[in-house]
Amino acid sequence: MAGKPITLMIIDDQPLLRAGVAAIISSNADIALAGETDSERDAMELLRDLQPDVILMPVQRPIMNSIDAISRMLSEHPQAKIAILSSHPKELQMLQAANARACAYLLKNALHTDLVDTVLALAAGQHLLPADIKVDSTAQVSPGPLSSRERQVLRWVAQGRSNRQVAQLLTISEGTAKGHLHTAMRKLGARNRTQAVSIALQRGVIGVEH
């Protein structure tokens, strides 16, 4: 990607997570860390000073706090793209209330695989919220239902398991596990494993283990 790098601002109260995000993007010349903070109050001041392209922020409880925060940020900087950061797939269902504002979500345990692609996609104008939320369901044509094995793979992925771990749990090769995951992603119309989990949860294809 030529020209000015995409600027990212991180809001999270966990220093290790912020450091992890910084480490992930440090090797990508297309993305630059504009700033980070552990509080929304400081975030608004940073937002005015930095005007980042993408903002990474956590889901809050109650969800209305997240909606209010997104509204305030976009009123200050309407061009920004906001990605919601969640610790568990079931929280993503709450994002239905904020789908008109946020552009994407990320699971904390999938940052190392999905962060860079998500930031690049948002900067390119894409929206990565689940298809059931952002797109009219009549426009989504599924190539077919998920097989039982594909659902099994997605259930383990939803719990943060890597392809290698999924393969070990199901007693199959890592390549086979990856193949099942890619087929499930294609059937669900997902761009990455995180989005596949969210779409599957939204449609009731898989459930969340407690």
Key terms:
single chain; 210 residues; alpha/beta; Rossmann fold; Arc Repressor Mutant, subunit A; 2 domains; five-stranded parallel beta sheet; NreC/VraR/RcsB-like_REC; DNA-binding response regulator; Sig_transdc_resp-reg_receiver
- The CATH topology name of the largest domain reads Rossmann fold
Give me the number of helical elements.
9
Number of strands: 5
Looking across the biggest beta sheet, what order are the strands in? Answer: 2-1-3-4-5
Principal-axes shape call: elongated
Domain Response regulatory: 7-123
Domain HTH luxR-type: 139-204
Pfam family, one: GerE
GO biological process, one term: regulation of DNA-templated transcription
What report would you give on this structure?
The protein has 210 residues and is α/β, with parallel strands linked by helices. It has two domains: 6-126, Rossmann fold (3-Layer(aba) Sandwich); 137-202, Orthogonal Bundle (Arc Repressor Mutant, subunit A). 47% of the residues lie in helices and 13% in strands. It has a five-stranded parallel beta sheet with strand order 2-1-3-4-5, sandwiched between helices. α1 (15-26) links the parallel β1 and β2 (31-37). α7 (163-170) crosses α8 (174-188). The protein is elongated and about 50 Å long.
Could you give the topology of this structure?
Elements lengths: L5 E6 L3 H12 L4 E7 L2 H11 L3 E5 L4 H14 L4 E6 L17 E4 L3 H13 L7 H4 L13 H11 L4 H8 L3 H15 L4 H10 L8
